[in-house]
Write a structure and sequence with these properties.
Layout: H1 3-6, H2 8-39, H3 42-70, H4 72-96, H5 101-133, H6 137-165, H7 173-188, H8 194-200, H9 208-221, H10 223-253, H11 257-276, H12 278-281, H13 287-306, H14 311-325, H15 328-339, H16 345-356, H17 359-374, H18 376-395, H19 398-401
Helix pairs in contact: 2-3, 2-5, 2-6, 2-7, 2-10, 3-4, 3-5, 3-9, 3-10, 3-16, 3-17, 4-5, 4-7, 5-6, 5-16, 6-11, 6-15, 9-16, 10-11, 10-17, 10-18, 11-14, 13-14, 13-18, 17-18
Amino acid sequence: MPLQRSRTPVVLLEIANLASGTGNGVVLVALPWLVLDLTGSAASAGVVAALSILPALLILPMVGAAIDRFGRRRISVISDVASAVSVIAFPLVGWLWGLDLSWIIVLAIIGAGLDPAGYTARKSLIIDTAKAGRVRLESLNALHEALFASGFTLGPLLGALLISTLGPISAFWIPGALFAVSAVCVQAMKVGDSGREAIEHGADEVSGWRGLTRGLSALGADRALRALTIAIMILAGIYLPTESILLPVYFEGLDSPESLGFVIAALAGGAVVGAFSYGWLSTRMSNYRIIQTAMTGTAIGMVVMAFLPSLWLLALGGALLGLAWGPMEPLLNTLVQQRIPAQEQGRVFGVQMTAFYVFPPVAMLLTGASTERWGVGVIYPAIAAMLVAMTIITLSLQSIRQLNAPVDGASSQ
């Protein structure tokens, strides 16, 4: 096969990845702004953010099993089409009946429940795309997460522009179109499916409830990977309310969507550089050293942001946070691809995504209610202190150091 043709799946996957990331970045800004614009309530923004995450807790374990059983590409396309429809529903419902808080909650729940399936399926496609494109696995993981983060850089800026020109409701047309682009690109890919191929060559295939729990048992059997997953789950619960509630509330109070977009874009821009650097870092640093550097830098960036300094310093803290955390996503992808058998990778990615959704709903409800009472200036430093404490605990775990050791029987390039 000519080299140029073999790289086509890489190009298509990453166009889909960038389009989806940009669409999600627009929604990240537009949804809380829409809630605050209609209700003026930080608590309501917290309720919407929390409730929109809950369906993923039920859907993602089934998504992992579906990816391994029915195919990675198929599930990705179905999810992106469904996400496009759910996002376009915001302006359609607004035009037909008028949006209120109840409608926003329903549509946010539907959209948030569908979108993680596409993200998970595209993660599962990385190893097959790397083989087809003759690309080093670590390098493609770095590129993949860097481009997704690029979408989160462009998306908030685009979302802020759309809010200020078209309004928060009409802004949702654009992410709907971007999710459709993602679906078309993945549908056009011609790659194998290492999970299905492993089953065809004699690997055990399970279905029913045992199939849904297989990813949990596979992850649980790897003590080091399990420990890292739990740590990131808790860190996500601590951090995510800052993006979905605290920063929107702060800048909505200043009536400055452009500033919100600027700070979120700085976060994502740092993450782009950090994620892209993983391919280079993986040849020079151990897994533990990458984790240590990432978590320490993230804690420092969070502390800088927590005291709500001037806009430029706030953006600088966000850029540092994103830069430090950036290598963690491609590292986590690579660890699963190297340590988990191919026919179970979709399930494990699904379990991990579910774990990362466990704490945020409760944290968002508590953050929204406490911010309503005490204000952003009090709650942001408290959350930063919790993140610093969790970072210290995580880096002290002996099991995290074991991530430098390979696991027998796992799939690798």
